[in-house]
Write a structure and sequence with these properties.
By secondary structure, this protein is mainly beta. The protein is 5% helix and 45% strand.
């Protein structure tokens, strides 16, 4: 069950138009969004540009639906840690890098790359390490009492189930003592150099081990496990005795980690954690984040008590205590540490949190609790906890409060009617709700959102090919076309999406549509259309689509432009395609070309010149029977720039009033609204000329009259009897000479 606002796109022999936070698509290498399977088998997709509560998509591995996921941003990297791994990381038993989503994607371990995750398992001896690793392509490492193993993403859940802690005791199972990412010695973004556990390994661990063996030094500090303060793994030094007789010794600086070292007065801090049964907690972590300087301390101890030396200062405290299926989360917006003190972390002080709505049969399909703290120097710290429901999720009201506008506590959820099969198929409604409390965590942690205080929208999802399934916001699905009533908390930015599939919805939609952030008022907001033609190129507002662009930086031109967006005003889309090409010309000479979908990076000579960018993509009627081919040519002037500059590109958008099967009436003259959409932030000039042509067969074209002026017109397209489809061609020229010519084959269908 997906949590939040993204979805994996198809891994097939087709490619996908557009791109988000991943390598561009090519006809030889299928494109997919950067879903990442963690070592636990859970799948995540990070959206750091989304509003609060919508930044993360999580699909727990089968049988792990009760697991919670903590998202945090440390040092610019997004970390996503399952609740059963948090204490192991804080204790220095499991490598924090295994949950550094940003870094793993940079190393090329996205699911679309189909690469195995290289791991190192340590134990009392190398034989036990190999056994703990499960025998999956194991490389024995006797020198350090370890085994190297590559874990396929579809077996990660099985791998973790052997090692996962049992009964809240923060110890790896299966006889393992530690679990580490076999990070490459020198890795490039995209992971072009995969670590090899054999003779030619680039692994930091194996390279260091080999060097130690060859030099026969007494002890070599390998610095294998990078110091990752992000999720609290303390500074860990892995030392190897030459010859391997004594194996590995791990040295941690107590139970807490601090980085960087800060020279200021310190005071003893005693932390006493109690679980939900009133016993000393074994499965718990606490983090202190200095709100005045970059200084993070994380502590845990299986005895339930930890003593740390903490520099004096003002801190934001976050803690988690787990007992079975129960988890209590504690956040103190302001902890003033100016003397020796003891802090009690008591799980039984946690209270249920939640959101209820008017419809009695509504149940949550995704939830989030967010603790957001602003530091004195403007950094955003804190994290969020995500799950499929609120069951077992407890929060303790805070004792402290932050200064005004420096802390917000959110509770967010999407709710719909369950289908009895573990999903929400056929639900007639979908709620998007959240509430927030500034300055502190309140005592009232369950809120009701009545329909009368929400915005109401009728969402109509059209069919672009027969027999397709649509899914709205990764929760509610049904056979297209269908209509769903949506409710939104007003005055809150919401992202929306629609995916289409052949058959049951899964992780591989054939097309994907995203809407930019929208806010709704209270009451009936009317209706909105989704998956309605004409599908063509678009330039949505830049947020949240940082990947949609056409820019020049110095002497490099970068483009990534969606070609199959529906007629929604501020949307971006992807689609399976069967072929694509992108070419850039300078003063008529070819600069570069590729087989990508309106995507590429091109080095160009210095100075001013006239450029022509050509993009074309085709898709099969099995994906959509409309817009089976889209081609666009942009002509523009560009010169060397000292700062990134958005190029003056525009597209022509068509938004006819089609029925729910994307059909127009036959035997009449049909009005087609036409508009010019410029790249957000570019310096395009006013419209000088706009023309539209139509064709019934894609070969013979004829001009159609346009009503109106400027960027908004209405094309009058005749529909003679017997016409099946209409193709559209448009040309736009602005007063600065920037030009776009675009052709959309089979733009819409005509009813006979």
């Amino acid at each position: 069950m997906a949590l939040a606002l993204a979805v994996v796109l198809p891994v097939t022999t087709a490619v996908l138009a557009g791109g988000a936070q991943a390598a561009p698509s090519t006809t030889g290498a299928p494109y997919a969004e950067p879903w990442l399977t963690l070592v636990t088998g859970d799948r995540v997709l990070s959206r750091p540009d989304a509003p609060a509560g919508q930044e993360l998509v999580v699909k727990p591995a089968p049988g792990r639906e009760s697991v919670r996921f903590q998202r945090s941003v440390r040092g610019g990297d997004v970390h996503v840690v399952p609740s059963d791994a948090a204490t192991l990381i804080a204790a220095g038993t499991v490598d924090a890098r295994l949950f550094n989503v940003s870094r793993l994607l940079e190393l090329g371990y996205a699911d679309a790359d189909a690469r195995e995750l290289p791991l190192i398992v340590t134990a009392a001896d190398e034989a036990r390490a190999a056994a703990a690793a499960g025998g999956q392509a194991v490389t024995r490492l006797p020198l350090i009492d370890a085994a190297g193993v590559r874990v396929a993403r579809d077996r990660a859940g099985q791998f973790w189930s052997r090692l996962a802690p049992k009964n809240d005791v923060p110890v790896l199972g299966g006889g393992a003592a530690g679990l580490w990412l076999d990070a490459p010695l020198s890795a490039t973004a995209g992971g072009s150099g995969a670590p090899d556990l054999g003779a030619d390994s680039e692994s930091r661990l194996i390279a260091g081990m080999r060097a130690a063996t060859e030099r026969r030094e007494a002890v070599v500090d390998l610095a294998v496990v990078e110091r990752f303060p992000a999720t609290g793994a303390g500074p860990i030094d892995l030392a190897v005795t030459a010859g391997g007789a004594d194996g590995t010794r791990f040295v941690r600086s107590g139970a807490a980690a601090r980085t960087p070292v800060v020279t200021q007065a310190s005071h003893q801090l005693t932390l006493v954690a109690t679980d939900h049964n009133g016993n000393p907690a074994t499965n718990w972590t606490v983090t202190f984040n200095d709100v005045e300087r970059e200084n993070v301390v994380t502590a845990t101890d299986p005895s339930g008590t930890a003593v740390v030396s903490l520099p004096a200062g003002n801190y934001f405290m976050e803690a988690q205590i787990g007992t079975g299926a129960l988890s209590t989360y504690i956040a103190e917006p302001l902890v003033v540490h100016d003397r020796a003190r003891t802090i009690a972390l008591t799980a039984t002080e946690g209270r249920p949190i939640g959101l209820t709505v008017d419809r009695a049969d509504a149940e949550p399909g995704e939830v989030a609790a967010i603790f957001s703290r602003m530091t004195v120097d403007g950094r955003m710290i804190g994290g969020s906890t995500h799950g499929v429901n609120f069951d077992g999720m407890l929060v303790r009201p805070s004792d402290s409060a932050a200064p005004a506008d420096q802390f917000v506590f959110y509770v967010a959820a999407r709710l719909a009617r369950p289908d009895g099969q573990g999903g929400f198929g056929g639900s007639p409604y979908l709620y998007h709700v959240q509430w927030l409390e500034p300055d502190r965590v309140p005592t009232d942690l369950i809120r009701h959102m009545g329909d009368a205080e929400l915005g109401k929208v009728q969402a109509r999802l059209s069919a672009a090919a027969p027999g397709k399934t649509g899914r709205k916001d990764y929760l509610v699905h049904g056979t297209l076309p269908f209509t769903i009533t949506e409710y939104y908390v007003p005055d809150t930015p919401w992202l929306s999406s629609v995916g289409t599939f052949t058959g049951a919805p899964n992780d591989n939609p054939e097309t994907m549509l995203y809407s930019g952030a929208r806010m709704f008022g209270v009451g009936n907001q009317g209706s909105e259309r989704w998956n309605t033609g004409v599908f063509g190129p678009s330039f949505p507002a830049s947020w949240p689509w940082s990947w949609t662009k056409a820019t020049r930086t110095g002497n490099q031109i970068d483009v990534e432009i969606p070609l199959f967006t529906d007629h929604g005003a501020n949307r971006e889309a992807r689609s399976n395609v069967t072929g694509a090409s992108t070419k850039l010309f300078r003063n008529g000479s070819l600069v570069g070309q590729n087989a990508q979908v309106a995507t590429g990076s091109f080095g160009v000579p210095a100075g001013q010149a006239t450029y022509r960018l050509e993009a074309k993509a085709t898709r099969s009627s099995g994906v959509a029977s409309l817009s089976t081919s889209v081609s666009v040519q942009w002509t523009f002037k560009s010169a060397t720039v000292t700062a990134p500059q958005r190029l003056p590109l525009a597209v022509v958008r068509f938004a006819p009033n089609l029925d729910d099967h994307n059909r127009a009436p036959g035997g009449t003259v049909f009005s087609v609204p036409v508009s010019v959409q410029r790249q957000d932030g570019s310096a395009g000039a006013a419209t000088k000329q706009l023309t539209v042509e139509a064709s019934y067969d894609g070969r013979f074209w004829f001009p159609v009259p346009l009503l109106g002026s400027g960027d908004s017109r209405t094309a009058l397209v005749p529909h003679p009897r017997g016409v099946d489809h209409v193709s559209l061609r448009a040309t736009h020229l602005d007063k600065a000479g920037n030009r776009v010519e675009q052709t959309i084959t089979r733009a819409y269908q005509v009813r006979r």
